[in-house]
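User: These chains co-purify. Model them together.
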Amino acid sequence: MENRRMNETFEPTLIAFCCKYCAYAAADLAGSMRLNYPSNVKITQVPCTGRVDIIHLLKALEDGADGVYVAGCMEGDCHFVSGNLKAKQRVAYVKKTLSEIGIEPERIDMFNLSSAMGPRFAEIAIEMTERIRKIGPSPIAATADRDNRQAKEGKP
Amino acid sequence: MIVADRKSIQEILDMVKTCSKILVVGCKGCVTVCNVGGLKEVQILAATLKIARKKDGRPLQVDEALLERQCDPEYVAMLKDTVYDYEAVISMACGVGPQFLSEAYPDQRFYPAVNTTFFGGAVAHGIWEERCAGCGTCIIHYFDGLCPIARCSKSLLNGPCGGSDHGKCEISKEVECIWDKIVRKKMEQGRLNDLLDVVPAKNWQTARDGGPRRSRREELIQHG
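Assistant: Joint model of the two components:
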C-alpha cells in the first residue's frame, strides 16, 4: 500500500459488474465509438444486475479492489423487471457495512444506463476512477496483495 | 420459525478481537429461512470480518461451516474433528445453537452472532412479525386464530385497552391492535357474543414464569 501511495499517479483497480442488456452493451458501443475510458476498470458481465449479490461485492473488495460498481438498466427498464432495484438495495447494504467498519462507502456505487449510452459508460468509468484516485488505495488492498502473492507462491 | 437479527459487525469484531483464526457456523434451520444465519449470511459475515481485519492490518482467518441444525446433538457432533482447530467459534444460529455447541465442546469458546427475537413469520419480503409467545397453553381458538398473548402489547384476554386507536396500538403506529382485529372478525362472522364469556386470568406457569421448560415424549425416548 505504501508503494502504491508513494506513486504519484495511483492507478486504482476497479471492478464493474455490468448487465449484458445495458451497461455491457454500452461498453461495446463506447468501444465502437472509439471513446477512451480508463483501463483501471475490469468488467464482469452479468445476465442482470439482480444476479450480483452482496457476497460478490464484498469478495471483490476483500480480494483487493480499490473500488467496485454495479451498472444496470435505467430504473423501470430492467429486462427482468426489478433486478436493478435489487442490486441497488444490495449496494446500499454494502455501503452501510463499509461505513460500519471504517471504510469509505464511496468505494462502491450503483449506476443506471441504457445500451445506447456509450459515452455515459465512459463517463462513469472516468468518474469512478477519479473518485477512487482521490480517496486513495483501499486499506485492505495491501493485505490482500500479500495474501494473493503468498497464495501464488503456495505459502500458507 | 424463530426469528433473529444479526448483531452489529462491531459487536462481533469485539468478540473476536484477540483471535487470528476463527470458525463461523451457520444453521440451515429457522435462521436460514429468516435470512440471518444460513449459508449466504455465513459467507457475508466471514467476508466482512476479513475485510475489517485486513483494513486494520491484522488479518483474520475465517473458515465457514454450515450445520443442518444446531439444535440437535447429532448435527452438532459433525464439528467434532475441526472445532478445536480454532481460537473461537461464532454461531449464527438462534440462541439455542451456541448453547448446544458449548455443551458439546466445553473447551471451546462460542459467540452468538445474532440476537434471537421472536417466533414469527414473514409478512412480506424482508419483514417478519411476531405471532407466538411460546406461552405453553395455546388459546388462539377462542380468538378466531389471532393470539392476544403474542400480539397485544399487554397480552390482554378480555378486550382492548384504552390505547387502541383506529386499529393501531398506542405503542407504535406500525403495530396493529390485535383486539381491534379480533372484535371486527367476530362481528363480521356474527359471533361477537363469544366475547361475552370472561376469560379467567391465565396460568403463566406453562410460560417462562414456571422456569425453564422441558418437553418429554415417552414414545420417542430411546432406552439403552
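The radius of gyration of chain B is 22 Å.
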